[in-house]
Amino acid sequence: MGGVEKKKIIIDTDPGIDDAMAIFVALRSPEVEVIGLTTIYGNVYTTLATRNALHLLEFAERSDIPVAEGSHVTIMKTTKLRIADFVHGADGLGNQNFPSPKGRQIDQSAPAFLVEQANLYPGKVTVVALGPLTNIALAIQLDPEFSKKIGQIVILGGAFSVNGSVNPAAETNIFGDPDAADIVFTSGADVLAVGINVTRQVVLTDADHDKLAQSGGKYAQYLSKILEFYYAYHHDAYAMQGVYLHDPTALLAAVNPSLLTYIEGVVRVQTTGIMRGLTIFDNSHKRFEEQTEWSHKPIVKVAVTVDAPATVKLVMERLMNL
C-alpha cells in the first residue's frame, strides 16, 4: 500500500449472517481500518447484536476494536421492533450457539462514539450502516456538526424503483426506523444509499458456498457453517439456489466505490401509513414552482448498477485467502 492512508470505517451493524460476512470482509481488506463497531436491532435485538459483534471480533482475534452498543428503540421510542430472526436464526448467526464472548462493549453509547470519532478524524470516517438508521440519526441530533464532520455514510437500505423486502413498499432497514432514515437522508451528510435494487444482483451461489466450505481458511469455514441457515431461507422465500450479498456489497461500496455507479438527487422516506418505509428518489429533472417538503433538501447518491461478478470475486478472495 505504501503511503496510502487507510480509510477509517465504523460499521453500524445488527449481526446477522451477511453482517458477519461484511465484517470479516472489512477486517480482511488492506485498504481499510475498522475503528469500531456500533450495534443496532434488526436481524436480532440490540443486546444480542452487541454480543454477536463481540463474538465476531473475538473469532477474528480483533478484540482491540471497540464495540459501542446502540439504541434499543426507534428514534420515536417505538419498542415494537421488527426482528428478522426467521432469516438469520434465533441467535442471528444460523443457530450455531457459539460460546459467550469474553469481551464487553465500551461504556459509551453508539451515537456518542460516532460523534467522538467524527470529531477526532473530521472528514476521514466512513460509517457503513448495515441496519436501521437509529444510531446515525441520534448522532446527528447529538451534534449538529456531525453531518459535516463525518466523511461518508454508506447506507445499506432502500428499494429504488423496485418492490421492497418487508412488503411491496419498504426495504427492511428503512422500514426498521423510517423516521431515522429520513433524518439521515436529509442531514446534508455525504450519503450513499445502496438499495436492494442493486444488492439483489449480487448472489453467492451454491457453488460458491461449496468453494467456501472446501477452502481451509478459518473465515471461510466459519461462514460456510452459518450460511446453511441463510441458504435454506433464500431457497424457501425466493426459490433460488444462492443468497443475496446485501451487507458485503454495501461494505465494498465504501471500500471500492468504482464497483458501483450512482445517480444523485433528493431522497425522502415515507414515515406513515401503508407506504411507511418507502424511499422516494427525486431525479431533479423538473423544477417545481411550489415550496414543499422536497424543496432545498440536500443531494445524496443512490447506487443504480453494480459489477456483481467483481463484487462476488472480491468477497470470495478476501474470505478464502488466509
Automatic annotation (TrEMBL):
Pfam families: IU_nuc_hydro. The keyword Lipoprotein does not apply. Its EC number is 3.2.2.3. One of its GO terms (molecular function) is uridine nucleosidase activity. It is found in: Cytoplasm. It is an enzyme of class 3 (hydrolase). This is uridine nucleosidase.
